[in-house]
Amino acid sequence: MIGIIGALDIEIERLVSQMEHPTRRVVSGVPYVHGSLLGREAVVARAGIGKVNAAVCAQTMALYYEPGLIINSGVSGALAPALNVGDVVVGTDVVQHDVDTSALGDPPGFVSTVNQLAFPLDQAASKSILAAAPPLGIRAVAGRIASGDQFVASSARKAEIVRLFAAATCEMEAGAIAQVCHLNNIPCAVIRSISDGGNEEAAMSYEEFLPLAAKNSANLVLAYIRSLDNL
């Protein structure tokens, strides 16, 4: 089974609309839709914004549905200068840019208890997702995802995240989802379509380009699922 998590309704509505024989349940305020997506058993959830919501969603999905792969799909802000609105970053790994115990001697982003800075993402799934992008006319690149409970809308903050983590894009859920997948030994992939530049114009750009970015991310999820028949 494939698990798919988005933060917002707009990020998952296209996926849910194509689900056959759907059954719905709500756990801890999070809605889950289970059924057949392009002939594959799947569960799609709308987690809500932020790492706590994402972690609750991912852990519940792991316990209730036992997916063999969890995909986090949605939108994000560009950190790499070569990225444009509508481009997609397929994660190589995820860091949590807002975690900081450096006063205790840890590097920025180091997650205690699991004692990791970066959470690797599934290479096989990520490679297949990248390969599914060109036929859709979507520009997709591999890159590091920086995750934190902050909508980045500052050139200074953007530059600091790039300096510390060399990340391609920033968003608010993938770090928690990747950590939950790590704890449950579930492969994880992250697809993030650019909605804004992570700078002072980010809020305006986000509102304008959210629909396009969400559409590209969802379409790439669907293209990846279709490609599984050829693997």
From TrEMBL:
<dbReference type="GO" id="GO:0005829">
    <property type="term" value="C:cytosol"/>
</dbReference>
<keyword id="KW-0486">Methionine biosynthesis</keyword>
<dbReference type="GO" id="GO:0019284">
    <property type="term" value="P:L-methionine salvage from S-adenosylmethionine"/>
</dbReference>
<keyword id="KW-0326">Glycosidase</keyword>
<dbReference type="GO" id="GO:0008930">
    <property type="term" value="F:methylthioadenosine nucleosidase activity"/>
</dbReference>
<dbReference type="Pfam" id="PF01048">
    <property type="entry name" value="PNP_UDP_1"/>
</dbReference>
<comment type="pathway">
    <text>Amino-acid biosynthesis; L-methionine biosynthesis via salvage pathway; S-methyl-5-thio-alpha-D-ribose 1-phosphate from S-methyl-5'-thioadenosine (hydrolase route): step 1/2.</text>
</comment>
<dbReference type="InterPro" id="IPR035994">
    <property type="entry name" value="Nucleoside_phosphorylase_sf"/>
</dbReference>
<feature type="domain" description="Nucleoside phosphorylase">
    <location>
        <begin position="2"/>
        <end position="226"/>
    </location>
</feature>
<dbReference type="GO" id="GO:0008782">
    <property type="term" value="F:adenosylhomocysteine nucleosidase activity"/>
</dbReference>
<protein>
    <recommendedName>
        <fullName>adenosylhomocysteine nucleosidase</fullName>
        <ecNumber>3.2.2.9</ecNumber>
    </recommendedName>
</protein>
<dbReference type="GO" id="GO:0009164">
    <property type="term" value="P:nucleoside catabolic process"/>
</dbReference>
<dbReference type="GO" id="GO:0019509">
    <property type="term" value="P:L-methionine salvage from methylthioadenosine"/>
</dbReference>
<dbReference type="InterPro" id="IPR010049">
    <property type="entry name" value="MTA_SAH_Nsdase"/>
</dbReference>
<dbReference type="InterPro" id="IPR000845">
    <property type="entry name" value="Nucleoside_phosphorylase_d"/>
</dbReference>
<keyword id="KW-0028">Amino-acid biosynthesis</keyword>
<keyword id="KW-0378">Hydrolase</keyword>
